[in-house]
Each structure stands twice: as structure tokens, then as C-alpha cells.
Amino acid sequence: MEQRVFGSTGVTVPVLGQGTWQMEDDDRASALRSLQVGLELGLSHVDTAELYGYGEVEELVGEALVGCRDAVFLVSKVMPNNATYEGTLKACERSLKRLRTDRLDCYLLHWPGPHPLEETVRAFERLQEEGKIRSWGVSNFDVDELEEVLAIAGPGRLACNQVLYHLRERYIEHRVLPWCERHGVAVVGYSPFGSGDFPEPGSADGRVLAEVARAHGVTPRQVALSFLTRRRSVFAIPKASREAHTRDNAAAERLRLSEEEVARLEEAFDSQGEQRSLPVV
Ligand code: NAP
Fold it and tell me: Residue 279: pLDDT band by 50, 70, 90 thresholds?
């Protein structure tokens, strides 16, 4: 699995990881098996959050990681409502317990929330000093909010911004992605398959996607993952609770799209205007 430097951390992380949102609704044994197969195949960036199943998913991830924790880049997120100074410290302790570990590799603020960012950043810095987190980042932050974090924390502190990024949602390409690249911040694209809304071959854009896939003898989803991670600052974290899906996703790493194919996909999937704001989560 191709490794890339994860923002300012200097740590290398696989370009493709594993998401876990809504896994609490899936067959537990299948989700667990999927995660474990993913780890065997090198999808060792595992993304979760205290929000997911209100702790249930972190418990599942904790179980999947037994015996292989050290080989995993483990990420969790504090809910904005909990993200006061004290609230963040306590939320992290709860997540560590559910995940059966003594540290997170990266800890994120799930989205901009009601509490002063200074407090969350101060808590993140303390958790890092104590070795409970190795790095910290944010999620769903637009450029103005990223500037605010930079002003509070100074350069080189913010590890990543985890943002919505799929073929039909390329908003981040306009300003967020260039900002992150300028400041050495990793971009982690979430919902790379648009959650449940993946382009069907019957649609105009889906037809182009299917043609590119056919030319390489791969699946459209593999083309999507390759396209989304075409810049070295970008990582993707598809979620799969079925082993066959996980295997399909892991194999995407071998695919190399030509410049012409990338251009074709860029044209087929309109990146839309700069005027829209980041979608509310
Ligand atoms: P996604 O990864 O875009 O899509 C997941 C869906 O695609 C599931 O139904 C999955 O099915 C299916 N799938 C996966 N691989 C497949 C394959 N190779 N072939 C066919 N179907 C496949 O959805 P997502 O969960 O929204 O996003 C991924 C992760 O990003 C989340 O799990 C979460 O960790 C993170 N996320 C973060 C935020 C945030 O605010 N920071 C928001 C949303 C998501 P099965 O599960 O049945 O295998």
C-alpha cells in the first residue's frame, strides 16, 4: 500500500484507509471481519468518532485492533458540543477506553462548534504533551476556520483537515485543498463514494467513469479512489462492512490513471462554482 507523509506530522500513512461511520447498523461480524481484512491488506488508517453509534463503533474498532494496534494509524473525533477544554480531555479518555488503547495517532474536532477554538486547541496540545494523542486536526473546516486555527496554534501544529470529497462533490478543490497544501496540512477525503450516492453507469457522468474502469479492467469505485487521491496531499477513507468491498477498495491502490483519463473525469464530474459553502454536517 502506497504510504504518504501525513501533513506536518512527518509520519507516513497509507493513501487509502477505512471509515467506520454507521457500522453500528451493519452485521457486526461482517464489519469486524472487513476491518481486519483491511488491516491485513494495508488499509491501516482507521477513522472513527465518539459520535458513531454513540461509542458503539469505537468499541467495535477497539475489538478489531486487538493484537495489531501498533500497526494502525488510529483517528477519532471529539463532538463539537463536548469540545471545551475539560470536555475534550474527558472525551479523549472515553474514546481511548472504548478503543482499548493508550493513545490516538490523530484526534480531530468533528466540525466547527459552539465552543471557543482556543479551548479545543489547548486541550489537544495538552493531550499531545501527555502522549495520549500523537497529533491533532480538524474536520469540515473551510478556509476562514483553518486560518483561525493557524492563528491560534501557529504553523506546523495542525495535522489534517478531514473533508467531504467525492466525484460529485469537489468543492474543496477550489480553496480548501490549495490552502492545506500551502500549509503542510493533510487532506483526508471522507465519503469517497458519496455515502449511498455513487454514480450509476446509466447517468452521463457514471458512463464516463464506467468506460475508464473498463479500459483498466477495474471497478468504477477503484477509479474513483484513484482519481480522488491523484494529489499527494490527499488521503481517502472509504467505509466497507463487507469483505469483498474492502478487498476491492484496497486493490485500487495499484491503479494509475493517465493524464487524459484524469482530464476526462474532471470534465465529466463538474467541480462546480466557488460560491457554495462547505456542506453542513
Ligand atoms: P462511503 O465510503 O462514501 O461509502 C460507503 C458505502 O459504500 C457503504 O454502503 C459501503 O457498503 C459501500 N462500499 C464500500 N466499498 C464498496 C465497493 N468496493 N463496492 C461497492 N460498494 C462499496 O461512505 P461514508 O461512510 O460516508 O464515508 C467514509 C468514511 O468517512 C466514514 O465511514 C467516516 O469514517 C468518514 N466520514 C467522516 C465525516 C466527517 O464529518 N468527518 C462524515 C462522513 C464520513 P458496505 O458497508 O455494505 O460494504
Answer: very low
Residues with CB under 6 A from ligand 1: 19-21, 26, 47, 110, 139-140, 162, 190-196, 221, 237-242, 245, 248-249, 281
Report CA(201)–ligand 1 centroid distance (Å).
19
Report whether 163 contacts 135 (CB < 8 A).
no
Q: Is 279 exposed, middle or buried (0-12, 13-18, 19+ CB in 10 A)?
A: exposed
Q: Nearest-CA neighbor of 9 among 134, 196, 181, 195?
A: 134
Question: pLDDT grade, residue 281 (50/70/90)?
Answer: very low
For residue 267, what are the CA distances in angstroms to 31, 70, 212, 262?
Answer: 35, 41, 13, 9
Amino acid at 34: S
Q: Which residues share a beta bridge with 74? A: 46
CATH numeric code, 3-196+231-241: 3.20.20.100
Contact 84, 122 (CB under 8 A): no
**Which among 66, 50, 154, 33 has a CA at the least distance from the CA of 108?**
50
Q: What are the CA-CA distances from residue 102 to residues 18, 93, 97, 157, 276 (Å)?
A: 21, 9, 8, 21, 40
Rounded Cα–Cα distance for residues 180 and 139 (Å) = 12
Q: Where are the beta strands (DSSP E) in the chain?
A: 3-5, 12-14, 45-47, 73-78, 106-109, 136-139, 158-164, 186-190, 234-236
pLDDT digits (tens, 9 = 90+) for 69-79: 999 999 999 99
Residues 266 and 1: their CA atoms lie apart, in Å, by 25
Global pTM?
0.96
Confidence of residue 36 (pLDDT cuts 50, 70, 90): very high
Sign of CA dihedral 183, 117, 187, 169: negative
